[in-house]
Design brief:
The complex is a heterodimer of chains A (232) and B (298).
Chain A lengths: L1 H16 L3 H34 L5 H11 L4 H12 L14 H26 L3 H8 L4 H11 L1 H17 L2 H7 L9 H10 L3 H30 L1
Chain B lengths: L3 H17 L27 E7 H4 L3 H13 L2 E7 L1 H9 L5 E4 L2 H9 L7 E12 L13 H10 L4 E3 L5 H13 L8 E3 L4 H11 L2 E5 H6 L7 E4 L6 E8 L10 H11 L2 H8 L2 E2 L2 E2 L15
Parallel strand pairs in B: 1-2, 1-3, 5-6, 5-7
Antiparallel strand pairs in B: 3-9, 4-7, 4-8, 4-9, 10-11
Helix pairs in contact in B: 6-7
């Protein structure tokens, strides 16, 4: 078994660098979808998270608990809920989004947003509240002032993006239910692995898993470098 | 400037996403030059249909082999969502598919009787076989019929993995149990709830018996140790049909493209393609109906 694992590791590297078309389609699809989801989620979560981290209102604890619960949402539950919206007779049925990449992105945004939101709001809460006042005093606009605050906690902000990206690129529930695992369209690395395993193609499945790990390792490396440079 | 790094990182991600993400047309972009020079789909249409089909067709690679040819000829993209026949019919009932390619006669007839589908059109056939461990503890290989074989499996309480997912294969399995006058259940009867490939892989791990279509079996022969123990029973004929949707119930379905797909799939040229599709040296699907007179009325 160990032997076949090493074999798979070697095969994983070979696949990644052999420009195997099928593999690149899978990797491209996964990467594209996960990146889009993370970016859209951050567009929602940055402003909301900053506001939520600074705001003081009644019921904030409730929202806190709800947000934290959302971190634990099983991906298939999100998949199912979004499916109900996108199905032909559902509220968004007329847009015919079911079994498209867009559908996967919608589901993944729902998975990623609470992660970024909670991490941003927590780090903003811990940042020195005088930053905003100082920035405003120094003549910065409101937007610049908030950006200065986010900049102060940039390492954590980057980390939240990474956590969100990690969650969505490795999930399978949403991709399978909303994408339908369509060959060449919505087949991602994870749904591809599930299919290969079900076909008894274990070596290729393991290699694809290794391809996924190599990519995530690369992303981590870039972010690590960036946070270190940012911290300087 | 402390923010710069974060912004640079974000910008890099954004650029990557734009490179990878934005030009990710769901329809495959180019409306494709058809050999005849005819513009593919008529204007305003996306030129894409969703085909609800079964795991046994998609996982064998047949659709991966046929669909690009169809796209090349017509510019129509066919997105195949492979699930069990039961789930495929439900997708179409819910309006989430444009056409069906399935293999469960009774369920198909019911689908048509409900007014969702117009008619069944024969596409291809192969057969189901009972596979199991070489040792064959239930002595399936010497059984006369599939029903006898199943009775032997139940009697010896040998492991049997059922699809358990309302797929065409599952329904056929149930009808064999019914014919044998038995109700399977107990420790030895495992309901996988998964596709054909996954079920066969599971049976392989357990050294169990299962019912499988020859298409899937031949395409994954290298990966499993189970062997064919019984074949040839008339109840094991496996017929794939394409079913267009009823425009009255499904006015929003992309019926025109779906119709062209059906016409193409049932054409003599495509029949030749299907006959020529080989995996591991086996022909997986046959188009001729010789000797299978029961196909239309069974």
């Amino acid at each position: 078994m160990m032997g076949s694992l090493f074999e798979a590791l070697a095969e994983g590297f070979r696949l990644l660098f052999s420009f195997d078309r099928e593999v690149y389609t899978l990797v491209g699809t996964s990467f594209r979808i996960a990146t889009s989801s993370t970016i859209i989620a951050s567009c929602i979560a940055f402003p909301l998270g900053t506001w939520f981290g600074l705001a003081d209102f009644r019921g904030r604890k409730v929202v806190d608990v709800v947000l934290n619960t959302m971190l634990f949402f099983p991906t298939v539950v999100v998949g199912h809920l979004v499916y109900m919206f996108l199905t032909h007779d559902g509220p968004l049925g007329e847009y015919r989004l079911l079994f498209t990449r867009t559908a996967i992105v919608i589901g993944q945004v729902i998975l990623a947003t609470p992660i970024i939101l909670t991490m941003v709001s927590n780090s903003v809460r811990q940042a020195d509240p005088r930053i905003i006042k100082t920035a405003l005093y120094l003549g910065a606009g409101k937007f610049r002032a908030y950006m200065a605050l986010l900049g102060e906690v940039r390492a954590l902000v980057l980390l939240s993006l990474l956590a969100a990206f990690g969650r969505v690129i490795s999930e399978i529930g949403v991709s399978m239910m909303l994408g339908g695992n369509i060959s060449g369209r919505t087949r991602t690395i994870t749904t591809g692995i599930a299919l290969l395993t079900s076909q008894g193609e274990f070596t290729r499945a393991t290699s694809l898993g290794i391809v996924l790990l190599i990519i995530v390792f690369g992303v981590n490396l870039v972010v690590y470098q960036a946070t270190h440079r940012a911290a300087r | 400037m402390n923010l710069r790094s974060v912004l640079i990182a974000l910008a890099v991600i954004l650029i990557m996403a734009c490179m990878l993400g934005c030009p990710a047309p769901e329809t495959g972009g180019k409306p494709a030059k058809t050999p005849s020079g005819v513009p593919a789909a008529s204007q305003g249409e996306s030129g894409k249909i969703i085909l609800a089909t079964t795991t046994s067709l998609d996982n064998t690679g047949l659709l991966g082999y046929l669909l690009p040819v169809f796209r090349g000829e017509t510019g129509i993209e066919v997105d195949a969502v492979a699930v069990g026949t039961g789930a495929a019919l439900q997708l179409a009932r819910d309006g989430n598919a444009d056409i069906l390619l399935v293999h469960d006669l009774e369920a198909e007839e019911q689908f048509i009787a409900e007014g969702h589908g117009l008619s069944r059109h024969y596409v291809a056939r192969n057969e189901f076989v009972i596979i199991g461990p070489e040792g064959d503890p239930a002595d399936v290989s010497s059984a006369e019929t599939a029903a006898d074989a199943f009775a032997g499996i139940m009697e010896t309480k040998s492991r049997f993995v059922s699809r358990g997912d309302n797929s065409g294969t599952h329904m056929r399995e149930l009808s064999i149990w019914k014919k044998a006058g038995l109700e399977p259940g107990g420790e030895w009867y495992v309901e996988a709830g998964q596709g054909m490939g996954a079920t066969a892989t599971m049976a392989n791990e357990m050294g169990a018996y299962t019912l499988i279509d020859t298409g899937t079996f031949y395409s994954m022969e290298d990966n499993i140790d189970l062997v064919t123990l019984l074949s040839g029973d008339r109840i094991l004929v496996n017929v794939y049909s394409i079913i267009p949707l009823n425009p009255e119930k499904h006015p929003d379905a992309r019926l025109e493209e779906a119709g062209r797909f059906m016409e193409w799939l049932t054409s003599p040229e495509t029949a030749e393609l299907i006959e020529g599709f080989k995996v591991n040296g086996h022909t997986l699907f046959h188009v001729d109906v010789n000797g299978y007179s029961g196909i239309e009325s069974d």
